[in-house]
Give the backbone structure.
Amino acid sequence: MAKKYVYFFGNKKAEGKGDMKDLLGGKGAGLAEMTNLGIPVPSGFTITTEACNAFFKAGKKHPSGMWKQVENDLKKVEKDMGMKFGDSKNPLLLSVRSGAKFSMPGMMDTVLNLGLNDVTLQAIINKTNNKRFGYDAYRRFITMFANIVMGVDRMKFENVLEVMKEQKGVANDTDLTAEDLEKLSEQFKKIYKKELKKDFPQDPYEQLKMAINAVFGSWFGERAYKYRTLNGISHDLGTACNVQTMVFGNMGNTSGTGVAFTRNPSTGEKKFFGEFLLNAQGEDVVAGIRTPVPVSRLQKKLPKCYDQLVKIYKKLEKHYKDMLDIEFTIQEGTLYMLQTRVGKRTASAALRIAVNMVKEKLIDKKIAVQRIDPAQLDQLLHLMIDPKAKVEKIAKGLPASPGAAVGTVIFTADEAEAAAEKNEKVILVRTETSPDDIGGMYAAQGILTARGGMTSHAAVVARGMGKCCVAGCGAITINDEKKIFTVGDLTIKEGDYITLNGTTGDVILGEAKLVKPKLTGDFDQIMIWVDQYRKLGVRANADTPHDAKVALGFGAEGIGLCRTEHMFFEESRIKAVREMILSNSIEGRQKALKKLLPMQKSDFIGILKEMKGLPVTIRLLDPPLHEFLPHTDEDIKALSKSMEVPVDKLRAKNASLHEFNPMLGHRGCRLGVTYPEIYEMQARAIMEAACELTKKKIKVIPEIMIPLVGHVNELKQMREVVERVAKETIAKYKTKVNYTIGTMIELPRAAITADEIAPFADFYSFGTNDLTQTTYGLSRDDAGTFLPTYVEKGVLEDDPFVTIDQKGVGVLMKMAIEKGRSVKKKMKMGICGEHGGEPRSVVFCHQVGLNYVSCSPYRIPIAKLAAAQANLAGTGGKDLSKSTV
Ligand code: PEP
Ligand code: MG
């Protein structure tokens, strides 16, 4: 028997279910679930994602048996709806739309009115007694089919439509008569033939086959591919294809179409939120061609439908126990639901909805914690306009995606991308956006559109990206050719600064001051629950007392990495470091180190004091030498004076220190092995700071960390140095300090020999930046030029410097953990590479049994949330970073 590739839904019964997203895609699963709930859904069927994958495997051919199943289910639809596909009296028309497991807004377009041809058109006209309606549907179908299925530029049709409107002296499509549209349909068929060198297909089955193939084909379309790459969605999932009976929102003023959210997706407020258009088809709402009105107004226009819609959305929300995004169409007073799925939301809305739903007893605290997307929390840490700033508001649009953005105006997505590559901050200004603009939207600081509603492409996509967006700002007129936009008398040119407030919809002239937002009570509540459910500790990477304070504010449980070389970037200090590196004698180095010791000591006092008795891991110097060597002759001359060494000699020394591969050169503990006095000074500064604070009854827990160890003897020798100094210092101060000495595991050899190293280390901290660099043989400093291409081309699924490469680096980590703990059973282990704040990596760290992760202060809430979710998900740890919310 052939594999089942097609799942029917209709007449209150569906073969699929809501939890079959992998197979039926989000839309297909939603349609099946709604049908089973007894909600009015036009009949149809879903062709599975497996069929899509099989289609590509077979060289773009249907898998065996699929078409037969399509024909069978089409018969069921015909029976259910009492209509026949291609019939000359009562023809069934279909919509064909893609729907993958993860929603990809605007990525794959829907074909409506499929099944129309010269014969069925007449039947529709006779049946509806509405010639205008028939021809309107036909000209739309020809355009969509040509554009979406056959790839003809939509403008070829739109231009003809515009000419017709001009000739007739009308502004809107709705003002065109039946005869106008009839003429247009004929012209459109001619354009089709001219462009594709064949007639517009009259066989409805042929149309269906071509549309299904196009849906499958679009999975590997450039736009969809880019979206998946940007969002870390696997290219292997495939898309499902939904074929469904058409219902018409454009059959007069008792018809309409709309999209809505069961709660406000921007703020989370518990209020039905959406937009609709009377006498319109779905594409009009989504594309932002006409600006829709709030859904609440439907209550006046079509009260029965509104009441029914309210009942349905409440039923759906209760069933799914989540905020939903729904699409509906009303055909001559009858309401149909076309789609439901978990609604995309801003981070603050996600928090509010989760907290409220716990209060409403719809969900429990654990689910509330699992509902928040850790990566999305970033949004809350977005900038906002300083409330005290005086700003000049020039226009107001819809507050489509919160936050604020400042940048220079740019009018095309490509230019936005090019500007971002040059590190320029730009605001993308478009009449309306399309999926082609994704790259530019991503690259821009913010997005401003002249048309479209809160559910337009720009709004939905920007919200998903967590990017500030003001949409539907009708007050601005854009002239793409002249690269300007005008607001009243004011002209803004390309390159002029503007500021957007995505929370209010304000467009502001010039550069406003931006500030970090305040976090709300909902955030605090979620974080309290997060702390209840997480096992993994969360520390911060912090190099200054100020960073330490910020980290504590975010709830850091210690410092996992204090990079001491970062303390030397300041002008006065870097000189002393240079003197130390460039001196030829131990005396010279001692002299420079003497200058550095008090500076270091005061830093450590500041940090240890700030952390109030929490552990502080201080890493001894790990300078890639090239970052510290003098770069100009002036620097060398200045140094020669202060060091009292001839310029030539100093120049020669500087040249001798040049390295071909500084990242693999004289850095980390290699510096300590060759010049132990450097680590000695640092150990002394740490221990003196710790002793002085202890004497003042301030609790301190210093953890001294030796970097870049590859061989046990490196650690053995460095430990001896540090231990000797620590003992001397403690004796000198006549006090007691709880200190430990550990190492980083950041070279493959260290991971492989972790059992040999363990006796000399009190703790391990994984330096996954270097571990990734050395495992892959990828230079951290140079990989940026080609790694993005690797990800784009699918060579790598993810950038290994962003998320831990679990199959390579991760295996080394597991090995080191096992080997280390085979010697010291309870050895404390953490991670301090950049991965420590990345949700998927945090889940991995939980799974492999680390004690803590350490990340930049602003990522602490994200790391904590990911840690709690990993714990709640159990050892199987679902892939949280790709949650559908
Ligand atoms: C690391 O290598 O992961 C690490 C934390 O050290 P650094 O980034 O300073 O080399
Ligand atoms: Mg490192």
